[in-house]
Design goal:
CATH topology of the largest domain in chain B: Chloramphenicol Acetyltransferase
Number of domains of chain A: 1
CATH architecture of the largest domain in chain B: 2-Layer Sandwich
Helix content of chain A: 40-55%
Radius of gyration of chain B: 21 Å
Number of strands of chain A: 0
CATH architecture of chain A: Orthogonal Bundle
Helix content of chain B: 25-40%
Oligomer: heterodimer
Number of domains of chain B: 2
Number of helices of chain B: 12
Shape of chain B: globular
Strand content of chain A: under 5%
Largest sheet of chain A: none
CATH class of the largest domain in chain B: Alpha Beta
Radius of gyration of chain A: 11 Å
Amino acid sequence: MDEQRIINEIKQYVEKNILAPSVTIDADTDLKSAGIDSFSTVEILLFIERKYGTAIPDDKLIPENFRTLRTLASTVHGLMA
Amino acid sequence: MHPFNKSLLPKKVILSGADCFHLVLDKHAQKHGAGGNVMRKIFHFNKPLSAGTIEAILKRSPVIYWLCNIRLREGLLFQKPCWEFIDKGSEIIVRQHQCAAENEVPREILGRDISIRSDRFIEADLVHYPSGACAFIVSWNHILLDAKGTTLLFEHLNAISENKEQDHALFFPGPEKKTNIITYIRNMYKVKHFVQQSAKPPVYSVGEKKKKSEEGLTAEKIIAFSSEETKIIIANARKAGSRFGPTLYLIACCSQIIDRLRRLKKRSGDLWIPVPYDGRLKGANGPLISNTVSFLFYRIPEQELTSVPATVKYLGAQMMEQIKLGIPQRYTLFLNMMRHVPLWLYYFLVSKTGKGVFASYLYTSTGDNFNNLRSLFGEPIRDISMIPALTFPPGLTFVFLKHDDQLSVNIAYSPDSVNPDELDFIEAQIKQLLITEH
């Protein structure tokens, strides 16, 4: 699975379940600025676990990996490789 | 002549489930004589502001006008309570006060209740201090606005003072999604089971159950941290395992302090802390009116309070589990269902669950909501604080607020729950615990 597909799938989940309809994001939007808080981050983590069967380990649970959809997808992609 | 179209204001707004829970808290406050379910936001300015100018801005707000012209229509059996717009022409008044003690909030303001029977549900005060500084204080009944709603209110007032266009549709809650009775009932059993397990005795509370507040007043002690100290606290939170923001770290530190107090008093019981969570979709600019909060419920046994990182880890696991089970969404659905229950029965059921103990203590945080609010009415804000509606018992709430990258914690307490020695202890501990690397 390529990174772009992961970006698109997480984006779809976040836009449908977490963000207000007026908020749009792209692969490089700062997620915190878009309104994603710690609680929403956990929701995204659980989605990743369900969707890709990959739990993000403790050492990868750092804000840098959750800054944008691209950094997040890259982390997930790395774990799946 | 009003500068807004009054016909756009809703004639009826149905209370949300969380609003109705506040009716229960209001009843609880009346029963225990704890000074009402009133929230207060305080904005300090370095120079005097004109009451006339502020009043003129407030009177241009359709939201403020609505809040001054509504009454509660309580739900009869199986009917939902609602606010009725009665348009009696009541306007907000900015009351002025002189206060000799710099930065203090006059007792007259702190002692003023805004009950569900009041004429207005929002009040404004301007306090002048000897130095020439002043404080603008807004007080409102918590049934109508939650923390995020307050942020939106001040953004709305700033937009008025800057003559910016606003979308009135965002001020009031939109139509509700219908839920069928079977879903309600299935959900009720799951939530009831969860909350009963989570809150089951023995739970230690700083306020003694069934005691009536003698003072009936909220006292406060604000501890302010510099921006450098705030950076240290946030770094400490991360090092202690609170990975996506400092919330779990702050709750862990507060819990450590309450546990130490508990030991000093030679009392037993786990800690139980319901923590509010904003249920709006992220990035939403509304609704401004009504509570859209849900809760996460944390229970911490003694053995998980051995160190701050251990408590953070334990809280993190509970948070993850509750999100996985959809507890906040389920709890919202549960609260929505409870709107159909008569208030006396609702209060009885809530009191029975915790056997009179509402929580060990309460925690609330404005997160980053006020961090970038640098000015109000075009004037630079020196600092902001918040006095919560104090639920008694427990009669102790830690309010974390970040403004201009500086964190502060307001220890809001009832003197009936926390004596002066205990307050000194809490203050010293919180300073030390937050700043220390664990």
